[in-house]
Design brief:
Elements (H helix, E strand, L loop, with lengths): L4 H22 L8 H12 L16 H11 L5 H22 L5 H12 L14 H16 L3 H14 L3 H16 L6 H11 L3 H14 L16 H21 L5
């Protein structure tokens, strides 16, 4: 794909058309799975009807619900309206993803953008009232800012991502490790550690917040924390390996001749 304005416009238009078709198709349905619970939580916050079930109904921290309640309060209070807001968040997520690939070639950027759009575990959530896409948006923005050496802004964005989904702390830990390996490598020198600590110092904020939350809440899930204890399950590793195998099987087959 040539690097020219026409190809960029085509990519943007094709992304918009894809999401618009998805929105029209999904918008014919009523609440899907947990959309009812999410919408109820948003409604209670926006209308000042917060009760003991408002924040215990869902496992996530309420960052997403507070954001969506602003639009609900402004009059976008129907299911289709909330889904449209979710559509805008999805567009921002995709553009941030493209921005995070800024240093890569144009062809690879376009291919990976469409891989994100058609990703089986994510594509359905682009137009549903769920926390997943906002969570991904903030995580991608955090990573992009870190790669551009804006460490304070990256850490703040990481904190915001945790306020949407607690498990994003795993991504932040990975980003810190990635930054070390990318910039300092495996050649261990004391001076490198000093520079590294200065780089990731502000990540104490999101990591410390998560540690305090886990201690006070006695678990990772906001709802029924006793049912989601901190533990290690080997079956999760096998499920992950199985999922990754299916996901990347076409790419593996395509590259067999290069092995």
């Amino acid at each position: 794909v040539a690097k020219n304005p026409t190809s960029v416009v085509f990519l943007v238009l094709s992304v918009c058309v894809y999401l618009a078709i998805s929105f029209i198709f999904i918008n014919r349905t009523s609440f899907l799975v947990d959309e009812g619970d999410h919408s109820k939580t948003i409604s209670e916050i926006a209308t000042s009807q917060v009760n003991e079930e408002t924040f215990s109904r869902n496992a996530q921290l309420p960052g997403y619900y507070f954001l969506m309640s602003i639009f609900y309060y402004l009059g976008i209070n129907s299911l289709s309206g909330l889904r449209f807001v979710q559509l805008i968040i999805s567009l921002l997520c995709i553009f941030v993803f493209m921005w995070s690939l800024k240093t890569r070639g144009q062809k690879e950027k376009y291919i990976k953008t469409w891989q994100l759009l058609t990703f089986p575990y994510l594509s359905i959530f682009f137009v549903l009232v769920y926390t997943d896409v906002l969570s991904l948006l903030l995580v991608l923005f955090c990573f992009a800012l870190m790669r551009r050496k804006h460490f304070f802004l990256s850490a703040i964005t990481g904190l915001l991502s945790i306020l949407v989904r607690q498990n994003n702390v795993i991504c932040l830990l990975y980003f810190c490790l990635y930054h070390f390996l990318e910039n300092y490598g495996f050649n261990i020198k004391f001076q490198k550690y000093i520079f590294y600590i200065k780089d990731v110092f502000w990540f104490v904020l999101p990591l410390g917040f998560t540690a305090i939350f886990l201690y006070i809440n006695k678990g990772a899930a906001l709802a029924n924390s006793y049912a989601s204890p901190l533990s290690f399950h080997v079956e999760n590793i096998f499920f992950f390996l199985f999922s990754v195998t299916l996901l990347f099987l076409p790419q593996v087959i395509f590259n067999l001749k290069k092995i």
